[in-house]
Each structure stands twice: as structure tokens, then as C-alpha cells.
Amino acid sequence: MINKADSILKNIFGYDKFRPLQEKIIHNVLSKKDAFVIMPTGGGKSLCYQIPALIFEGLTVVVSPLISLMKDQVEQLREYGVQAIYLNSSLSQEDYRANEEKIRNNRVKLLYVAPETLLMKKTLDLLASVKVDCLTIDEAHCISEWGHDFRPEYRQIAELKSYFPEAVSIALTATATPRVQDDIINNLHLKESQKFLASFNRHNLYIQVVRKVNPLEQTLDFLEKYPNQSGIIYCFSRRQVDDLYEELHYRGFSVLPYHAGLSDSERKRHQEQFIKDDVQIIVATIAFGMGINKPNVRFVIHYDLPKNIESYYQEIGRAGRDGLKAHCLLLFNYGDIRKINYFIDQKEDKERRIAKMHLDALVRYAESYECRRIPLLNYFGEKYSQENCSMCDNCNTEAKDLIDVTVRAQQFLSCIKRTGEIFGAVHITDVLRGSKTKKVIAKNHDSLSTYGIGDDLSKNQWLSLSRQFIQKNLIEKDPEFGSLKVTGKGYEVLKGKRNVMGKLEAEEIKFTARAETDLHYDKNLFEILRSERKEIADKLGIPPYVIFPDKTLIEMAAYFPQTVNQLLKIHGVGKVKFDRYGKKFLNIVTDYCIKNHIGSITKTRRQRNSQITKAGKTRRYIVVTEAYQSGRKVEDILNEFNFKLGTFLSHLNRYVREGNAVNTDALLPLLEIDSAQQKIVLNLFKEHGTDLLRPVFDELDGKVSYNDLQIMRLLMMNKEVVKNK
Ligand code: ADP
Ligand code: ZN
Asked: What is the pLDDT of residues 598-648, one digit of tens each?
């Protein structure tokens, strides 16, 4: 049966292989063993029940809490040619009845249903008349009062299991907290052994925390790196949302606001426009994001501090569901923390303690200099042990310029001592920078020897250093008053017995695009494909990603498929989608290739090659050849990679030697020898073989350059490859 699952994965969904755990879970479900699946957002939970649903003879019932989610899933499944429907309050009476009829006549494989609808007697009666093979409980955390989304009706679903004696049940959630998980297990009478817990590491998210100095400027600089890309910006308050929306809108960004102050219909419309790629950016309070499944969100910015680590992780999790890279930025400053603390202080005792704990964890996370994934995953009980994730600010060498800050530490610590260890970081900084604040004057601190000795650093740089000193346990901060004290370790620094390494923050942080795909692809072709997709989607009234995800278009623009078989190898192209849209997209690619003299790149061949290096990067010769195959000028490629023609030709040589064809048209003009000489060279290669250039070079007394020999050899080998295809 698992073979069947394999072929469905490929033929219906168009994917090459299962993700971790998917196969195991599907195997379990097919053997009618209940399963509890915990995977992060974008982990691939849906296939775990959708593939069995297509194999089972009977019906799969999927309980889902939100109408928008049901709609999205059903739209996607229909595009794959799968018979799926939903029953909920959004349907007209007529459609509702028609759907019931389809169930009665066994004409559907998957039924999505709201919990309250499922609990109705008439629904249960209807389902009793057909064979139900699987009961899926999606967003299973709704069962738990500890979850962020408790739904009382979910509680009753457990009792329904007895209505479907033949059905296996599978519960799925992206909630990582153990308490919620235990609740789900208890409520659904599952066993610990039936739990499938995937890693919560989202390797495709680039995670960055930056000191918030001038948030608007910073945001603009960031957005400049992601033109035409979808993203969400989270703000703390409605007012902030409106203000930022105005600013961005005024500057010509494609942007809309989203918060609880807007009417239901406005909110719905804005969300819809975002999903359909009609608008690129949503500025929102945290209310936004639940129940949307847009896979190509390329960035999430936290303009203000999130509520706690869990919601932060959930919010950044809305980026990069398609598995392509996405950039998550948190803007963080101490003013915000003071503001939140102020709110927290107004709360009741217990609530206040919990809120403070959450805030502290968040501050610790933001201040940390270790890999961002360590504290994040640790929060969810997972240990991240990779040395360098390469996808966070702290693991990226540029940000990790540690320098010797021993003298700075001595200045700071001695200033603490001299002022009697009763002041906080702001005052110490004022003294060091020689400020004439009221407090400095009143306390006579302008007469201290440390007054003004640190005026070459900015206030923010000193404050950042002070936090590092706290982290390194050189100073202690009084939890109540915020005053600083020098620790034993700190004294060692003062006495010159210990050195301190740290990071001196740059005054201005410029952003770099971090969500670029590794695959080199033709951007022009991608845009053409994208607008075709949008046109089709608009005609059908569905989101573009339902037709094909971005990854599919990117692969098309990288491999230039020009035959049916080549197209079927592209990610996300299954048989039904191929039948529906294949021709259209194939024609576009073919036309484009003819116009631009581009040959196709065989995807399977590439995959057999040892193309990935240990560091997880695509090998250079492939990157270079792809750049060339995408129609770019040789001259531009040499400039970009900063190497000589000979090196470039060696890269192509390696690619062709592995059995891949390239388009040789652009190489011919580079030849400096005439056709008579070319013939001679070809004959010599036939005689000496193509492994080495030297014998041919020597035979010609060095009259033909190595570059020309390389080109001739390429032409010859390429011809062989094409012939053997
Ligand atoms: P979740 O429900 O866990 O948030 P989804 O089921 O929506 O995640 O899957 C996220 C994305 O990954 C979807 O676009 C889905 O089609 C894709 N996906 C799932 N499994 C695979 C796979 N084995 N290979 C490639 N893509 C996959
Ligand atoms: Zn890291």
C-alpha cells in the first residue's frame, strides 16, 4: 500500500519524496492505527491524511475549526483532481443539499466539516449511511483549554469516535507545548506511542533581531530588499498599524491594514487580496494570520515586540510555508519593554507574574548572542545542537564580529563603582558620555574621573555593551530597581585579570536579502509565468498558489522544461495539473527559450549528480552553468563570479562531462581560430582523447590557446551528450 502512497505523491501531488515522518504516519494510518501528529506550520501535515484518504475505499471526514481553512484545502484538493467538499454554515441551502447528496452516493473522498456541523444529528445520520474509513481532527489543539484557540465543541468529538467503528483517527496540530499535547492525548484516548513529533526547526527561516532605532527607516530599507514579495508586518496596536500603513501606502507600497477596528467585511477583503497576490504587504495586529494558508509569505517583520516566544514563533511560522527561504525580522528596543512592563504592572498578581516571565524570556532571547535556534527550540523542549545554522543573524559571520572590549568593560565597571553601585545603565552611560543631564549635575557626577571618558561611543552602543556585560555576569542588575553592581568576575576584569570579548553594535544596520532561492533561475521568465498563473487564478476565482506554488514556477524558470516528461519532473506538477495547465506553461517556456536561445537543463540528471556540497550549498559549477543556461551573457557571468574565461569554461566542462547538455551557441563567438583550424583541433581530440588538453596544445606548438581548446572540446563533448539523450 505504501507503494500506492508513493505513486500518489508523485502523480497527484507532483512531489519527489516524502518529508520526514510523513511516510511512517501514512503507513500507520493505512494499517488503521490511530496517530497524533505534531509538526510545525508548513511541515506537511495535510498529506498525512490526504494520501490515505485517496487509498481508502470509504470516506475521510476532516474536522476543521475555520471556514477559511476548509475552503482553502478543498480548493487545493480540487485542483489536484481530488473529490473533496465541505459542509459548514457558509454554504447556501442548495449547495449544502447537493454536497449531502454527493456523500450519500459515495462520490467524495474527503469531507471537511466544522465541529458543530459534525455534531448535528442529521450529519451523523448521513455519515452512518456510508463507510467512514478515517476521522481526521485538524488543528487538534482546539481541544485544549491551554491552547490559544479552545473550542468547546472539539471536546465532544472524542465521543464521536464510537460512531465510526471502522474509522482510524488522526489528530494534527502545530502546537508544541507539552501541556496542550497531553490534553489532546487524554481527550482523544490516544497513547503516547502513537505520537509523531517532528522537529520544530524551520530551517528555511532566516531569523534576525535588530535594535529598533528608527523603525520606519529600518522597515523601508528592509522592504527595498524584497520588491514584489509578500510579507506581513506585525504591530502592537491598531494605531501603530494605521500609522505604518499610511506611511507605506504614501510611499507607493502595495499594502493594506488589518486589525480588529476594521469591519468584518473590510478585514475579509484585505485578507482575500493578500491571499490572491493583489496586495503584497499586510500591516496587522496579531489578529492576522489565523486561518490563512498562503505559502509564499517571504518575510515577517515584528515592528513591535510580540507577546511571548510562543506567539512569536507562531507568527514567524507564517513565513515560508512553501519551504523556500523567508526572512523574519524582529525590531527590538528597551523603550518597548518599558511600555509593556507598564501594561503588565496594571495586571492582577498571578497574571502579572506570568506575563513578566514571558517578557523576560523574550528579552533574553533577543539579547542572546548564540544561534537563535538554540533558545527558540529549547523553549519547545527541543535541543538544537548544530554548530552553525547559517540561517540566523548570530550565525552569520558579518554579525559575529567579536572584538576585545576589555577597556570598555573597565570603563563601565569603574563608573559603576565610583557612583556607588546604585544607578542603572542609562545614568552610567550618561556619565561616561559626559552628558549634562539634571541627574548628573545634581549628583556631582561631572567631577568624576570617568566623566566623559566614553564619549566616542553612542548611547546605544554603551547600552548594548552593558547588556552584554550583564549576560557575561560581569555586573548584576537589581531586579526591582535596575541598579547595577559589579560581580566577582567583574572585579577580575577591573584588575586586568580577565579579558572581555564582545560586539560593538554598528550605528546603522543595513539589511541584506536573505530569502533568495539557492536555485539560479531566469527572473524574466519567472515573471511571465507568474502573470500567466495570476490570470488563470483570477478567472477561476482562486488564489494563484492553488494553481502552482512559486517553487514550481521557479523550477520551470531554472530547468526550462520543453517536453511533457521534463515538465512532469518539475516540483508540484502532477498528472491532473499537467492536463489542466501543462500545455499553457510548456508553450510559454518553449517560446521563451526559442527567443532567447536557451536549452533545457535535465532535472533528474542534476539530481543524480553530487551537486550538493557538505555545507548544503549547490556546487559552484552547477550554479555557474545554470547562470549561463539561463541566457545570461558570458561577460556578465565572469564579472559576477569574478573569474577568467578559462575558469568559466572548466566549470562548463565539468557539467558536460557528467552527461548534461548545454547550449553552445553563445560559445562560438568566443573562438579565436578559423574553421580550418577548428577542424584540425577536432581531429587531434579524436586522436588523443578529450581527457587532457596538453597533448593537443603541444602538438599545435602552442599556437591555439587553451581557451580555444576548451571551447572546442566542449562543443565536441556536448554533441555526444545530445546524441545519447
Ligand atoms: P501544514 O499543514 O503542516 O502547515 P501543509 O500540509 O500545508 O503544511 O504543507 C506545507 C507545504 O509543503 C504545502 O505547500 C505542501 O504541498 C508542501 N509539501 C508537503 N509535503 C511535501 C513533500 N513530501 N514534498 C514536497 N512538498 C510537500
Ligand atoms: Zn543560527
From this structure: 777 766 544 433 444 444 456 778 888 888 888 888 888 888 777 788 888
| Atom of ligand 1 at shortest range from CA of 17 | 23
Residue 619: CA count within 13 A, CB half-sphere:
15
Among the atoms of ligand 1, which is closest to the Cα of residue 549? 14
Probe ligand 1: pick from 13, 37, 275, 290, max atoms within 8 Å of CB? 13
Nearest CA to 187 among 213, 151, 211? 151
**CA neighbor of 219 nearest in space, from 194, 190, 253:** 253
CATH code given to domain 619-724: 1.10.10.1390
116-159 per-position pLDDT tens digit? 999 999 999 999 999 999 999 999 999 988 766 788 889 898 88
- 358 within ligand 1 shell (Cβ under 6 A): no
Site to probe by mutation for ligand 1, drawn from 10, 24, 37, 46 as the one with most ligand atoms within 8 Å of Cβ, is: 46
pLDDT at 171 over 90: yes
Ligand sitting nearest the alpha carbon of 370: 2
Q: CATH second-level architecture of 205-379?
A: 3-Layer(aba) Sandwich (3.40)
CATH 1.10.10.1390 intervals, the chain: 619-724
Beta bridge partners of 361: none
Q: Which helix (H) or strand (E) holds 534?
A: helix 523-540
> Is the CB of 549 inside a 6 Å radius of any atom of ligand 1?
yes
* Out of 538-542, 576-580, 663-667, least confident range: 663-667
Tell me the ligand closest to 201's alpha carbon. Answer: 2
Reported pTM: 0.75
Q: Which segments of 198-325 are extended strands (E)?
A: 205-211, 230-234, 255-258, 281-284, 297-302
Which fold is adopted by the domain 2-197?
Rossmann fold (3.40.50)
Q: How far is the CA of 409 from the centre of ligand 2 (A)?
A: 26
Buried/exposed 357-386: b ≥16 CB within 10 Å, e otherwise: ebbebbbebbeeeebbbbbbbebbebebee
Q: How far apart are CA 500 and CA 203, in angstroms?
A: 32
- CATH class in words for 523-609: mainly alpha
Q: Write out pLDDT tens, residues 478-497.
A: 877 789 999 999 999 999 99
Region 403-502: CATH code:
1.10.10.10
Q: Whose CA is nearest to atom 2 of ligand 1?
A: 45
